[in-house]
């Protein structure tokens, strides 16, 4: 036990003002008067099934008015059980469709509200009639975009990262995107952020205990040091998350891959083989490609935006010059690049001024093409490769015109990408899966780090200021999940803390 007063240098006024202002409660929206919303949940148009969703306090009313038995009699929903029914207009009783209906009793529903789903035949007139019927209920109104999910969030069914994950899941076009989105939607990212926030709040609880009980009272020894080391740990964890080479964001938005190199090497031929169609013009004329041609492709389950670019050389042709300028920019802005070189030209390339060589980065891979024009068993000279800046560990040889070597290149390149962007095989392993999938996450984490670091910069006499920084840090993390507010700090003070008195 130790009797210490970390607040000894603080004026009583500063302290009481701090204690008064530290727990401002956030406004909690009341959902008592929420209306009932409805919308078509499937794409409009002709298809086997359309699902119309109704959510809110009067969802059950719509069931009573519209879901009837085969003889037109009233039905009572058995929650979560699909019921074969006749869907009718609530006012004139006219049958709209023969379908199915299900009642999800709140809070065990997506929105956590009472929800009715009508499964109809998907046709424009059927859907229009069902929506028109719903509009006759005085408390029902059409849902705004995303409003079902918004209600799920407001009702605490999901946090913001889950909302984002759900959106990404719907948008996912590749396996890696689907896996990351599903993990987010299931709450894996929320867990990480909640844990960070809990750790900060627990450190804050300790600091606040020092503020509350420090003056002339007894408190356990080492509390201040504990709080500090806890904060240091959190900073380390966050820095680990931030140091992810933007994998999550890249996988969400697509990895930018630029194909570059001297003219006529086979860059456009490579793009076409990757795309499995004649997307780019291929001719024996050097300088064929001028504009950037971009395609979204799936390479080894990764979303990749591939750009074919103009061959890089010195030229007096104005149009070609502009193309070359664009090519350079595209390569500079890419996340990865493939430099295509023509094997028969390799020797000459050492003397051509090499204005493409400066675009090589540690993220450049090399494809030495047109092997069919070289003698069998011929191997490029290591000294020449070194002079050209070709890294042999990231190099493949091909004959794209004959499709030779393409498969080997593609599988090697895909696994290099998977390795670099951390999506190899095991997504369930926490270390493999990126936590940050949006700039918003990154910004808040960076802010949190700044607040935590300035909290650490305060000495034991300034813990009131340190506490303030910790609150900001917790809020920054809370902003990611949408859980801002510091009510829980108070609880944590008394729950997690052993006061030595
Ligand atoms: N012999 C042989 N010819 C190839 C090979 N790959 C591509 N070519 C030919 O080389 C020529 C140039 O190919 P492109 O794909 O247009 O080359 P590029 O690098 O896009 O050329 P620019 O856009 O002009 O810079 C075409 O006639 C292709 O058919 C190969 O592996 N072997
Ligand atoms: K060409
Ligand atoms: Mg081309």
From TrEMBL:
Protein localization: Mitochondrion
GO CC entries: mitochondrion
UniProt-listed Pfam families: MMR_HSR1, MnmE_helical, TrmE_N
Sequence ranges assigned to domain TrmE-type G in this UniProt record: 254-422
Keyword Protein transport listed: no
UniProt entry tagged with the keyword Hydrolase: no
UniProt keyword list: GTP-binding, Nucleotide-binding, tRNA processing
UniProt record, GO biological process: tRNA methylation; tRNA wobble uridine modification
UniProt-listed InterPro entries: G_TrmE, GTP-bd, GTP-bd_TrmE_N, GTPase_MnmE, MnmE_dom2, MnmE_helical, P-loop_NTPase, Small_GTP-bd
Main localization of the protein described in the UniProt heading: mitochondrion
A molecular-function term among this protein's GO annotations: GTP binding
Family statement drawn from the similarity comment of this UniProt entry: Belongs to the TRAFAC class TrmE-Era-EngA-EngB-Septin-like GTPase superfamily. TrmE GTPase family.
UniProt cross-references to PANTHER family, sorted A to Z: TRNA MODIFICATION GTPASE GTPBP3, TRNA MODIFICATION GTPASE GTPBP3, MITOCHONDRIAL
Protein name: tRNA modification GTPase GTPBP3
Organism field: Coprinopsis cinerea (strain Okayama-7 / 130 / ATCC MYA-4618 / FGSC 9003)
